[in-house]
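Hi C.,

You asked whether I'd gotten around to modeling the 280-residue construct. I have! Everything is below, sequence then structure, no commentary in between.
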Amino acid sequence: MSKAMGATHSSRWASGRYASSAAGPSASLSEEDLFPVPLEILEEIFLNLPPHQVVSVCRLVCCQWKEVADSESLWRERCRREGYHRRDTSKIPKDWRLFYFLCKRRRNLLKNPTGEEDMKNWQIVENGGDHWKVDEVMVPHPNESIQKNFVTSYRMCRKSQLIDLEAEGYNSSFMDHFQPAIRISDWYAPRWDCGSEYVICVELLDHRKKPVQMFAPDTVEFEQWNDQKWNQMTHVFQNYGPGVRYISFTHGGKDRQYWAGWYGIRITDSCVEICPALDT
């Protein structure tokens, strides 16, 4: 019995059904060559495989596997199991697979956003007055885990980071084709006893580091004897066109009384992230 089965199996390969022909490349597996697997079982198998294998390997096997690997139900269920939820449940992603991978890779692309590592990873653009300083927060931040902030002095202080999207895993073809939402966020607060100013400029840059799109709102000014509360600056870049390869994030400020020391604007919890448009 075993010998007969072995002979049959060998003859199928020898007949050229799975072998390459002299005239061209290897023939691909047809549906009838594979053991039939119910779609729901195949989907469950894919749900337990690493997602990149499903996309780069499984979907190339045959039409049935490709259908399951590309199915909305597979990626919607993967999002559910891994806890990737829409903030606005009334909106449905056009592409659940894209939504899944954007959620999975979502993270803050800025390094040292709260000053826990002093000025590490930041390029000092302007260092006026008594220069930048890292200090404890004066009033509690909405995120209680944040205990430090950057503080400016009596002349303009600005610092910057340049984000290389390719190095962060977002290659040029992905950025050009999908143009995912780019969300920026920054928290800033004045001292109650000193007027101050806050500035921010975020640019999307091409491969030559030339601006494609820019967010640069007017300077925010605080008068002396203010409420000292934390404020959040946010912006979402969308439909910015092809060519974006870098993101330049620059912010800072100063005090308006020209007092020696660190009475200027306080900044912390800066963030740049690539995310689903539905989740911005």
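If it helps when you're writing up: The first strand starts at residue 123 and ends at 127.

Thanks,
B.
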